[in-house]
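Fold this: Exodeoxyribonuclease 7 large subunit
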Amino acid sequence: MPEVIDNKTIFSLLEVSRSIQKTIAERYRSLYWIKAEMNKLNHYTHSGHCYPELVEKKEGKVVAEMRSILWKTDYQRINEQFRKLLNEPLRDGITILFQAGISYDPLYGFSLKIVDIDPTFVLGELEREKRESIQKLQAEGIFRANKTLPFPLLPKRLAIVSVETSKGLSDFFKIIQRNPWKYKFEYTLFPALLQGDKSIPSIIRQLANIAEKTDEFDAVAIIRGGGGEVGLSSYNNYQLAKAIAIFPIPVITGIGHSTNETVSEMVAYQNAITPSELADFLIQKFHQFAIPVDEAQNRIIQASKSLFEKEDRLLAQYSQSISWNSKAILATEDHKLTTLTNHLQLFCRQLLKDRKADLNSIQRLLQLADPKQLLKKGFSITKINGHAVTKGISVKVGDEIETILYDGTVYSKVMKKL
């Protein structure tokens, strides 16, 4: 009962609390469906109970906050429903539609006792966010911006956004590092959270770091292990999808799921349902370059062989032709030489015969011109001072003359000149 002191009615804290408890219990007797964002699940493994922190936000600001209780048996049942429908457990950072009773405890204060959570509503919220992100990106004209970038001929320098301990990343590395064709890849890991609301700023921050040195990379790969729809909800976020869409080099994704493509995957240059498939995509790019090169090399080798074989045949033909022509030419030239030799011999014989006849004629002329023969016929030679006298004018009275006869010489003196 309240006390009366100095005409003042004074209630104890417990009395006030019980009054509030009674009033709320009488006023809120039913269960209510409530929508809120579950900021933290607060699951305690030792007891199995959860104490979710529920908030409502307007324009990014918290406008209401309330604690709640989810007892172990209810949590196990609800969590199993989430796993079956969403392939994900109940977790932090999702907007939920839950059924709860409203209660007040004098010791623990006001709370919501959650008895059920609708997993289909979570799917609907994810789909709504997805549609809104797509519409915004399309309205800004950037939805296909990354897809229109030129893709490198050989995407060997990769900036990888992932968690070092991710099984998906391990599978990716096994394929690209052990490929039987020995294609070489270079990569740099940019660690980031890949699940939940915190993954959004974490991935965006690493994309910003990569953007400062895009000349060092051919493409960005976002790699994550398997997960269900709820776990992938952050990849429908408008800000994350926009960061991928406007990135200056191609972004490729392998975030480990096979259904319901996220917005981030839609705007990426290329997406694969698993990290392993993404690795195969990159290796295929090397194939697309290497196979034509190998085929061209084989064509060059075959063409070279054919050309050499053709030239060898032509050379053999030319050699044989030259051999036949040489024999014919040699035979012809030999015949010509024999004929020329015969002609030359005949010519020389005739020439020698003619020259011999000429010499005989000259000899006879010389014999006839011999002074002895003239002297023998009665002619004589007159000389004065050793010189033959051919003109009378050259002889003077008193000159001594020498007259040569066939059989001797007569010396006389000119006594008279007529």
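The two ends are 216 Å apart (CA to CA). The longest strand covers residues 94-105.
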